[in-house]
Amino acid sequence: MNHQLAFRRTGAPSHLPLVLLHALPLDSTMWDKVRAELSDIDIITPDAPGFGNSGLAGTFGEPAILTYAQALKTTLDSLGVQRIALGGLSMGGAVAAEFVHQYPDMVAGLALMDTNISADTEEQRAYRFSIVEQADAGHGYDAIANWETTMLSPTVLPEVRSEMAALLQAAPNEGLAWQLRAMAAREGRDDAVTLVNGPVYFIRGDADATSSLEYFMKLALAAQQPRIIEIPAAGHFTANEQPEALARAVRAFYSAASAAHSD
Fold first, then answer.
1. N or C terminus: fewer CB in 10 A for the chain?
2. CA-wise closest residue to 219 among 201, 234, 235
3. At what angle do helices 122-136 and 173-185 cross, to 10 degrees?
C-alpha cells in the first residue's frame, strides 16, 4: 500500500522547510501564486490522497485525517526532514492540527488558514455526506458548484471567480468523497494550538463565512505565541483570491517559526 504523498519542493533545501497543505477540493497547485512570492523559502506542497499526483485515495486505506497525517510523516521521513513550519488552509488546516497532535516535536510553528480544527457538528456531517452521495455517483461537482459564489468574497475579481469555477469542476469524485468522509469522522484537535512550542498564526479572509474571527480568537487564547491576521477582500480560498497578501502573512509566519527554531 502506498503511504507517500506526491509533492513539489522549491527553494534551497533547508533545515526547516515550510510545508503547506491545500484546501478541499483543490490540489497543491493552489499554492502556486503564493509560492511565486516566496521563491527564497524552502517550500514543500504535498497533494492530498486522491488529489493531484498522489493517486487514488483508496490506496491509502480507509478515509481518515490521521491516515493523511501519517502519509505526510512518511513523506517527510523519506526526505530526511526532521522539523517543519506547518501551514494548512481549510481541510489542510485540519490535517495540520492532526499532524501537530501526533508529532508535536516536529513542528516549529503552525499556521491555521481559513479552517476549523474542531470536530464536525451533526449538521456539518450531514452536509458533507450529502456531497459524498453525489460524488460516489460521479456528480460531485453538482454538489459544490455553488462554492464559486458562497466560498469567495463578493468583491473577488471575475477572472478569479472563473478560475475557481474551473478548479471546482475538475475536482476528482473519488478523492472528494474520501476526504469528506475523513473530515466528517475526524476528532477535534483544538489542543494542537497548545502543543506548538513556537508561533501559531491564525489567518483568514475577512469575508470567510466558514471560519469566523471569533473562533480564531477563542483558539488563540490557548496558544503560546498567537497572532491573528485577516486578509481583506478574501473569502475562504485566500490562496486563490489574494495570493500576494497571503504570501506576506505566510512570510511573517515563517520568519517567526525560523526564529523559534534557532533558539
1. N
2. 201
3. 160
